[in-house]
Design brief:
The structure is a single chain. By secondary structure, this protein is an alpha/beta fold. Helix content is about 25%, strand content about 30%. It has 8 helices and 13 strands. The strands form 3 sheets. A 6-stranded mixed β-sheet has the order 9-8-10-11-12-13. β5 and β6 form a beta hairpin. It is globular, with a radius of gyration of 19 Å.
Length: about 270
């Protein structure tokens, strides 16, 4: 069952299937890969997630930032990938002071696909302190709708497999300038955050668009990075709305062609009252 040469493979696997449509017919299908990805900091295992084996350095950097393990890219000295029989280890060397803090409160996590809180040992660990959003960036309804219309051209893996979530960066003009996909919604967002951080993007001058629901973890990661606007295609949870309200995040859900719902801080959508 293990895919050989994981790091050299495409994130979609092609196989023969039987497809029913008024009778069975042989067909070729593509399915998204799902692989155990272990993150290790300074030689110490920290978490294992099931993820799509692509953009793994982005994933490691984004996870480290969005989970507060590091505060900026400069605290990462190196990221190496090590493939083994059952998956991939991502080996991060980080600032010793940061690692000491991580080691002091280290969690023993084993995450299911896209699991953001699996293995958290104490309830208090769920609600870590964050800073209020100070971004003054705004977006228009037309920009939201234009980004939504452009999504399919940025979702090649979803088109091929129908099995992945996407996370997208809308720049100061509302255009999609970065996209990442993964079988896990948290993973897709972490990959995007890592890619943006690596290129030095200013998180206060854009918006995040995600194809999944806006759970608490997705809101928390957005706030952690200082993003002012999170737009979700699916629904938010009540906890996500409360946290968005508390930390001054503009939260939009049920985003569809010509309709969406604003759940928190609508002032960043400039024509919301029109």
């Amino acid at each position: 069952m293990n895919a050989p040469h994981i790091l050299d493979a495409t994130p979609a696997h092609t196989l023969e299937v039987l497809r029913w449509k008024e009778g069975y017919q042989s067909a070729v299908d593509q399915v998204a890969e799902e692989t155990p990805i272990g993150l290790e900091y300074n030689g110490t295992p920290h978490v294992v997630m099931l993820a799509t084996p692509a953009d793994l350095k982005d994933f490691a950097l984004g996870f480290s930032l969005s989970e507060g393990i590091i505060s900026n890219v400069s605290e990462v000295k190196s990221i190496e990938l090590d493939e083994y029989s059952d998956g991939v280890r991502v080996l991060l060397a980080i600032d010793e002071a940061r690692f000491a803090r991580l080691d002091a409160k280290r969690q023993n996590l084993a995450g299911r696909t896209g699991c953001g809180l699996c293995g958290t040992e104490r309830i208090a660990q769920v609600f870590r302190p964050m800073r209020d959003i100070t971004s003054t960036h705004s977006i228009t309804v037309k920009q939201i709708e234009a980004a939504l219309e452009a999504l399919p051209q940025h979702q090649s893996l979803q088109r091929a497999t129908g099995a992945t979530h996407g996370a997208f960066w809308l720049d100061s003009t509302g255009a999609i300038t970065a996209a990442r996909e993964d079988v896990g919604r948290h993973n897709a967002l972490d990959k995007l955050i890592g890619a943006l951080a690596a290129r030095g993007e200013d998180f206060k001058k854009g918006a995040l668009l995600i194809t999944s629901r806006a759970s608490y973890e997705m809101v928390q990661k957005s706030i952690q990075m200082g993003v002012g606007i999170l737009i979700a295609i699916s629904a938010p949870t009540a906890l996500a709305v409360r946290i968005a309200e508390q930390y001054n995040l503009t939260l939009v859900g049920f985003t569809r062609a010509h309709q969406h719902v604003v759940y928190a801080h609508p002032t960043r959508i400039t024509d919301v009252g029109e």
